[in-house]
Specification:
heterodimer; A: alpha/beta; Transcription Regulator spoIIAA; four-stranded mixed sheet; 12 helices; B: 289 residues; alpha/beta; Rossmann fold; six-stranded mixed sheet; three-stranded antiparallel sheet; globular
C-alpha cells in the first residue's frame, strides 16, 4: 500500500494519488489540512479506496464548502465515485446530545427526596414480604422448595472453610491482644472471659454475617439480576409464579438455616483460636482456661449471638434478592445491583448489631 | 472478482465426542453474499464461530484471505463480526462502542476518528443515535450498530449471525438492503447465518445448507436453483415449507357489509396516493387443497 500524496498541478487543480484507506487516514488528514483553496481534486491516480479514506475526503470537501470553495471531483475514478456517492447519500443529522448531568445541588436534592420516599417504600416492602410468606404457607406449591438444600449447600457448606479461617484468626487476635493488654493491669486471667464474651456475643455472628453477605449475598444478587435482565423472571410471572415466592423465599430460607449453623461453627472455632493464641503467653493450664471460658460463656450471650444471626440472615437474603430483582438493563446493571447488595447487606448487619446491643443493654441482658 | 476469500478443507467441528460437522470443504468467493442455512442444532452458528477463530476445529483447516486460520494476534483482525444480539457494550454509547477498534488498531487523531464513527453510523442509519446507550435502543437498532462497529476497520469480510431474526418485515427488508449495498457498492464479502427465507431469496448469491443428521453439507449453490431443483428431501423441505412462492394463495371469501371508505390508515399513510387497497376489506382465508 502506498501513502496518499497531494500535489498541485500547473493548472491549479489538486491531484491525489496513492491509497485513500483507513491505514493511511492520518497521512491523508495531514495532507488535506494544509489546503486552503481548491476548485477541483483529481482522483485519477488514486489506487485503492475504502470508506474511511472517503470520509476524510468528504470532511475536507465540507470544510472547503464552509469556507466558500466548492471543490469538484474529477478523474473518473469509478470506485472512488461509488464510495463518495454511497457515503454522501447516507449522511444523516448529527446525534442528539445526551442529557446534561445534574449539578451537585440537584443531586443532593434528589437524594434527599429519595430518602423521604424510602419510608413508604420500606412499608410497602414489609407488606410485600409478609404477603410472600403468607402466600407461601397457603400455597406451598408456588415455592421452589427443592432449591433450598442446594442453596444451603452453596451458602453454608461451601462457605464453611472461609468462615472457619476468619473466625479462628479473629479469635486468635482477640486472645493475643487480651493477654498483651490485660497483663499490663495484672488481669491477664480475664482473657478467656473477654474472648468468650466478645466472640459469642459480637464478633462471631458479625464476622460470619459479613462473610456470608460478601459471598452468598453477592452470588444471589448477581444470579437473580442476570435472570431479570435475561427475562427469566418475566417468564416466571407469565407462568403465574410470584418471583418473590419462587426465587427469594428459598434463598432467605436457606440463609436462615445456614447462617446460624455457620455462626455456631464460627463461635466454637473463635474460642479455640483465642485459646491457641493466649495459652502459650499465659501461666494458665488448659483446664483452667476452659473452666474460665465456660463460666463466661453464659447461654444468654450465645443466645443473643444466635438471635442476631437469624436477623442477619433475613436482612442479607431479602436485600440481596431484592437488589437482584431490581436489575434493569444489561450486564452493567447486574454489576451495580450486586455491589449495592453487598454494601447494603453489610450496612444492615452493622445496623442490626448496633440496635440489638443498645436494646440488650437497655433491658439489662 | 471470483477469487476465494474463505476456504475450508476437511473441516470437522464439535466438542468432546460430539461431531457437528465433518469433512466440510467450502469455498466462499470475494464479494459474495453467502448464507449458511440449516435446521436448529446443525452447527450453523458454531461453524461461524470457527470461521472467526472463536473456536478451534477438531481437524481440518480454515484459510481466511490467504493468511490461514484466524487467531487473536498483534494485528487488526481481517474481518468484522456482528453477533445476533449486537453484543454492544452496555456501559458505552454507540459512538464509544464504535471508537473502540479505531483506538486499538489505528493512529487516527480524535477528530478524524469521530468523523469516521459518524460516517459509519450514518451508513447504517444511526447517526442520530450516536450518543444513545445500547439499553435505549431496539433490537434492530442494536444489530445495525453491531454492523457499524464491525465495519470500523474497513474489513473486506463481514460475518453476520442471524442479522434479520426478530425484526419486523420492514426493518428486515431495510437490513437486507443494507447488507446488499455493502456487498455490491463496497465489495464486502458477507457470510450470514440465517433462517429467514425472504432474506435468503432477496440477497443471497449462494448458500450452504447443513443438516444435523448428515453432519455436514447437503447442498451448496444459488438458493432459488436449490429450491426448484434440489432432490435432497431436507433441502426441498427447507426451501419449500414456507417460501412465499410455495404458500397457497389467499382467496377472497366475502366483504364487510356497509364498508364505504378506504383503509383505516389512509388519512395518515404516506403510501395512500399509490395504495392499491380497494375501498372494501376483503376477508381472506387460505385455500385448502
Amino acid at each position: 500500500m502506498t501513502a496518499p500524496q497531494l500535489s498541485r498541478e500547473e493548472d491549479g487543480q489538486l491531484r491525489l494519488s496513492g491509497d485513500l484507506v483507513l491505514r493511511h487516514a492520518k497521512e491523508l488528514t495531514v495532507a488535506l489540512t494544509g489546503v486552503d483553496t481548491a476548485t477541483t481534486i483529481n482522483l485519477a491516480t488514486v489506487e485503492r479506496v475504502d470508506g474511511s479514506g472517503i470520509v476524510v475526503l468528504l470532511d475536507f470537501l465540507d470544510r472547503m464548502a464552509t469556507a466558500g470553495h466548492e471543490v469538484a471531483i474529477t478523474g473518473n475514478n469509478a470506485r472512488a465515485n461509488e464510495f463518495l456517492e454511497l457515503y454522501r447519500s447516507r449522511r444523516g443529522p448529527g446525534p442528539a446530545p445526551r442529557p446534561k448531568k445534574p449539578n451537585p445541588v440537584a443531586i443532593f436534592g434528589a437524594f434527599a427526596c429519595s430518602l423521604a420516599m424510602r419510608i413508604p417504600q420500606l412499608a410497602t416492602a414489609c407488606g410485600t414480604y409478609t404477603a410472600m410468606v403468607v402466600g407461601a404457607i397457603r400455597q406451598p406449591r408456588t415455592v421452589c422448595w427443592r432449591d433450598v438444600p442446594l442453596l444451603m449447600q452453596r451458602a453454608g457448606a461451601e462457605g464453611t472453610g472461609v468462615v472457619v479461617m476468619t473466625n479462628l484468626l479473629i479469635g486468635a487476635v482477640m486472645g493475643f491482644m487480651g493477654v498483651v493488654q490485660l497483663s499490663q493491669f495484672g488481669a491477664s486471667a480475664f482473657t478467656p472471659t473477654m474472648v468468650a464474651l466478645g466472640h459469642l456475643r459480637e464478633l462471631g455472628p458479625i464476622m460470619t454475617a459479613i462473610i456470608v453477605a460478601g459471598r452468598s449475598g453477592a452470588g444471589f444478587a448477581a444470579e437473580l439480576g442476570t435472570m431479570k435482565v435475561s427475562e427469566e423472571v418475566d417468564a416466571l410471572r407469565t407462568m403465574g409464579f410470584d418471583p418473590l415466592r419462587w426465587l427469594m423465599l428459598p434463598r432467605v430460607l436457606a440463609l436462615l438455616i445456614a447462617l446460624p449453623l455457620l455462626t455456631l461453627i464460627g463461635d466454637v472455632v473463635g474460642l479455640a483460636g483465642g485459646a491457641l493464641a493466649a495459652l502459650p503467653m499465659m501461666e494458665m493450664s488448659v483446664g483452667a482456661y476452659i473452666d474460665a471460658t465456660a463460666k463466661a460463656a453464659h447461654f444468654q450471650h450465645f443466645g443473643i449471638g444466635m438471635f442476631k444471626s437469624i436477623l442477619f440472615a433475613i436482612s442479607i437474603g431479602v436485600i440481596a434478592c431484592s437488589q437482584g430483582l431490581a436489575a434493569r438493563g444489561g450486564a452493567a446493571a447486574v454489576g451495580v445491583r450486586t455491589t449495592e447488595a453487598v454494601v447494603l447487606s453489610i450496612f444492615s448487619v452493622v445496623l442490626i448489631d448496633a440496635a440489638i446491643a443498645i436494646l440488650a443493654t437497655a433491658v439489662g441482658v | 472478482m471470483t477469487s476465494a476469500i474463505i476456504t475450508t478443507s476437511k473441516l470437522c467441528i464439535g466438542w468432546g465426542q460430539v461431531t457437528l460437522i465433518k469433512d466440510l470443504d467450502l469455498v466462499i468467493n470475494r464479494g459474495e453474499c453467502f448464507f449458511i442455512l440449516g435446521g436448529s442444532g446443525c452447527g450453523k452458528s458454531t461453524l461461524l464461530r470457527h470461521l472467526v477463530g472463536l473456536e478451534q476445529p477438531k481437524s481440518g483447516s480454515i484459510d481466511i484471505d490467504g493468511i490461514g486460520a484466524p487467531t487473536i494476534s498483534a494485528s487488526a483482525p481481517p474481518f468484522g463480526m456482528m453477533f445476533q444480539s449486537g453484543a454492544l457494550f452496555g456501559s458505552m454509547t454507540l459512538r464509544e462502542n464504535c471508537l473502540l477498534p479505531l483506538q486499538a488498531w489505528t493512529d487516527v487523531d480524535k477528530d478524524t476518528a469521530e468523523h469516521l464513527v459518524k460516517a459509519k453510523l450514518d451508513l447504517v442509519g444511526l447517526g442520530f443515535a450516536a450518543n444513545h446507550l445500547p439499553g435505549e435502543m431496539s433490537g434492530g437498532m442494536k444489530k445495525r450498530a453491531g454492523i457499524a462497529r464491525a465495519m470500523m476497520l474497513e474489513p473486506e469480510l463481514l460475518f453476520l449471525d442471524e442479522p434479520s431474526a426478530g425484526l419486523d418485515p420492514i426493518s428486515a427488508v431495510e437490513f437486507d438492503d443494507l447488507v446488499k449495498t455493502l456487498c455490491t457498492k463496497l465489495g464486502i464479502t458477507a457470510v450470514i447465518v440465517s433462517h429467514e427465507l425472504p432474506s435468503i431469496f432477496r440477497i443471497a448469491d449462494r448458500c450452504l445448507v447443513l443438516e444435523k443428521e448428515s453432519q455436514g453439507k447437503v447442498a451448496e449453490g444459488d438458493p432459488a436453483y436449490l429450491r426448484d431443483h434440489s432432490e435432497h428431501p431436507f433441502v426441498h423441505h427447507f426451501f419449500n415449507r414456507s417460501s412465499p412462492e410455495a404458500s397457497p394463495p389467499m382467496e377472497p371469501t366475502g366483504t364487510i357489509p356497509n364498508w364505504e371508505h378506504s383503509c383505516f390508515s389512509a388519512a395518515r399513510s404516506p403510501l395512500a396516493p399509490r395504495c392499491s387497497i380497494s375501498p372494501s376489506i376483503v376477508i381472506a382465508r387460505r385455500s385448502i387443497t
